[in-house]
Amino acid sequence: MRTLPMLLLSAVLVAGCNDNTTTTPDKPSSETVTESRSVTRSDNMNGPTTTQPNNTEKNKRDRSGDTKTPFDQSNDSADIKITADLRQAIVNDKNLSFSAQNIKIITANGVVTLRGPVASTEERDSIVAKATQLAGVSRVDNQLEVTPLKP
What stretch of H or E contains 108? Predict the structure, then answer.
């Protein structure tokens, strides 16, 4: 008897997930992100513009196997602890941007690989310093990209 309400609830939740458009009303300018990941921005001066992100080169680089990805994270308990401790230190640092708090951290055999965008060289240096200070880290492979936040 309980399965019927659960099935109905599941159907409603799935139907609600089919919306392909997400809006962000808390932004000063209106932005709409669609399923194709194009961003339409409208401001008072220039009218609407559409920008398609071009990650082709980064995607090729990641598919090549030469670049560390989260799948390369070691299952060794010491490496997992390093990754978890560094993630916690980064997330707890409220001076770091959202993108910096969401970088990729991959640890294997005591070598920490850091990948992703950060807003400034100060953020990059802060994250590298946090990684270097952790016990068990033998080397830090800094692949962080400084990409200043756009206004």
Answer: strand 104-108
